[in-house]
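Bench log. Compound arrived from synthesis this morning; before running ITC I wanted a structural hypothesis for how adenosine monophosphate sits in the protein. Inputs:
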Amino acid sequence: MNLEQKFKQTLAKIKLENRQAVLKKDKILVALSGGKDSTTVAYLLKKFGYNIEGFHINLGMGGYSEKCLRAVKELCEQLNIKLHLYDIKKEMGSSMCYIRQGIQHEKKGLKNCAICGVIKKWIMNREARKLKVDKIATGHNLDDEAQTFFMNILKGSPQLSANSGVVTRNTKDKKFITRIKPLFYVAENDIREYSKKMKLPVVYEHCPCALDSYRIQIRQFMNTLTTKEKENIMKNFDSLFPRIQRLKTQEKLQYCEICGEPSRNKICRMCELVSIKKNSTR
Ligand code: AMP
Ligand code: ZN
């Protein structure tokens, strides 16, 4: 099966999992990083006639962020889609690097990508809701997902993967915008090849702050596996999924007491991190 077929099949699978199809009339906000994966998602959704708009968070990380912003602007012009920009320096007062350093000053063990991931998801959900979109699409690919699932197994906590999948499986809530991952079953190498073949405007270099050594180690190991083996990891994930879900403690979605965003706890992860940062700069 080629990349485009896998992409379409994944969109069909989302309907089965979510009891809600990805419809042509849905407004889908594509979270564009400037990298090959999310760029390919936008290109294909547009190609297949979906109603999309782009969303980019400018993380303010010097030359790397400038290149990403340029690529995203170029893509949206080429696809003739609206681009929504969120400038983290303007909105939050400092670049992702400073926000992260403040947090890490107080909590040494927290990894760059983990902090950045929490902040980006929080921004995405809030902005997508303001824009009244039906869904958010991200560029997560087979390698990302196999890596995460594998790391959770190595940690002895497969239940950490209980909310993962082609579509977010959280309890449905009006404040929570469903996120979809149309490249969930497509290998990173195939996406790289496809985006080059289609000459899409892409920044191919890695984020300069992605320095989580454990994840890098796992990625290096996973790079020694074939695509078939990575697919097998995710086949295991799919067949174990009902059992993984049973391991999960029953969670009730509530609204964060500080920011009002949907959260699993009284205070959401984002506000927890931001309060750590405030303490560090006092
Ligand atoms: P990452 O967390 O960097 O692995 O990225 C996962 C997905 O989040 C990407 O495929 C994009 O869809 C989205 N994303 C990452 N960075 C950004 C960004 N700066 N702006 C908007 N979306 C992003
Ligand atoms: Zn909060």
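What the model suggests: The chain has a mean pLDDT of 92. Residues 227-247 form the longest helix (21 residues).
ITC booked for Thursday regardless.
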